[in-house]
Amino acid sequence: MSKKMELKKKGVLLTIDLSFYLEMSGKPNLDAGEVGLITKHWQTWFSFFNAYTLGEPKGFLIIFLGKEVEKEIEAAWVTSPSKGYALDLMAKTMLMSAVKEFIPELATLKCAPVPKVNKQIRRKIASVGLEMKKNGILNHKYAVFTYFPYKGGCEVCLLKENCPGPNNQFGK
């Protein structure tokens, strides 16, 4: 890792990946209403989308949606659980689609390991509005912080002992 960890804003061209959304949902297909909802929010939420690298050529990838997205999804859960579920899943699809753009290996591995961080890295993350607790949890629900480039799976993950993910080989 470089001694000076430079934070760089990254542009990304995200297209709606309905097949990935379907895969995550476990549904065989989408109705027209769901497609419309996804399309509308994908376009709107792109303005709240953030992608950064921290340290290059080896370092970290930070991708998150602004708190506005969280608030909108929380409100949707209250008024319509099915809409809340669809929007929650869409936000997760958006994040993981972006992660796969930067780290193609994750298209098949489906897990972005959470790195152990020090105070310097925590300060850099905080400069873009994210806070990371010592247990690896971020203060944004729709956020991914992982190694960049890909460094390994469960074996390098801070959460390996308590991972809720389906790939966990250590804590279950």
Structure description:
The protein has helices at about 20-25, 30-45, 65-80, 80-100, 105-110, 120-125; strands at about 5-10, 50-55, 60-65, 145-150. The protein has about 170 residues and is of the alpha+beta class. The protein has a domain at about 5-110 and about 145-150. The protein has a 4-stranded antiparallel β-sheet, sandwiched between helices. A hairpin with a 4-residue loop joins strand 2 (about 50-55) and strand 3. Helix 1 (about 20-25) packs across helix 4 (about 80-100) and helix 2 (about 30-45) crosses helix 4. The longest helix has 22 residues, at about 80-100. About 25% of the residues are buried.
Short key terms for the protein model shown above:
globular; 4-stranded antiparallel sheet; 4 strands; alpha+beta; 172 residues
